Amino acid sequence: MYSRSEASNIKKEFWTTFGLYMKPIKNAEGADINWVNYKTGIRHIYFRMDATKRDATIAIELKHPSSEDRNKIFEKFEVLKNYFNQIIEEQWTWQLQFYDEDGSPASRIFTQLEEVNIYKKESWPMIISFLKERIIKLDLFWNDVKIQFEN
Fold it and tell me: Are 75 and 86 in contact (CB under 8 A)?
């Protein structure tokens, strides 16, 4: 078991390692990008990556404070679901409503890699590979559809 400080340092080291690994990779437009802190450019739409002692997750999170507006954004994604699946090349979980770590309502589209542990460095190659492949494809998808979410 790690102290809070040790756990925080390991997570920081992992995300620094992931960021350095991803640094040479350009986005879909050929530009430099901070993959770890991906900016969608659309308010209330976030691409999140996380790794814990149980799993690694990548998600599109919709955090609009209005449930009506959040549902409309989710519906826009649902219209694009076939295209999303074509680009991503796998089925993700679509969750209209969930509560985030702060207890705030949100929507998300996500996938997980189970049975990996961020605190075990031998899991890092699997986690990095899992996240890398998906964030690159997510960026490709977003590059094609972002304009539909700009208004």
Answer: no
Domain that holds residue 12: 4-149
Domain of 93: which CATH number? 3.30.1460
pLDDT tens track, the chain, 151 positions = 788 999 999 999 999 999 999 999 999 999 999 999 999 999 999 999 999 999 999 999 999 999 999 999 999 999 999 999 999 999 999 999 999 889 999 999 999 999 999 999 999 999 999 999 999 999 999 999 999 999 7
In the chain, the number of structural domains is 1
Lookup result for tokens 């993700």: 92
| Secondary structure class of 147 (helix, strand, coil) | helix
Sign of the C-alpha dihedral, residues 66, 149, 62, 33? negative
Are 130 and 114 in contact by the 8 Å Cβ rule? The answer is no
47: left (phi over 0), alpha (psi -120 to 50) or beta: beta
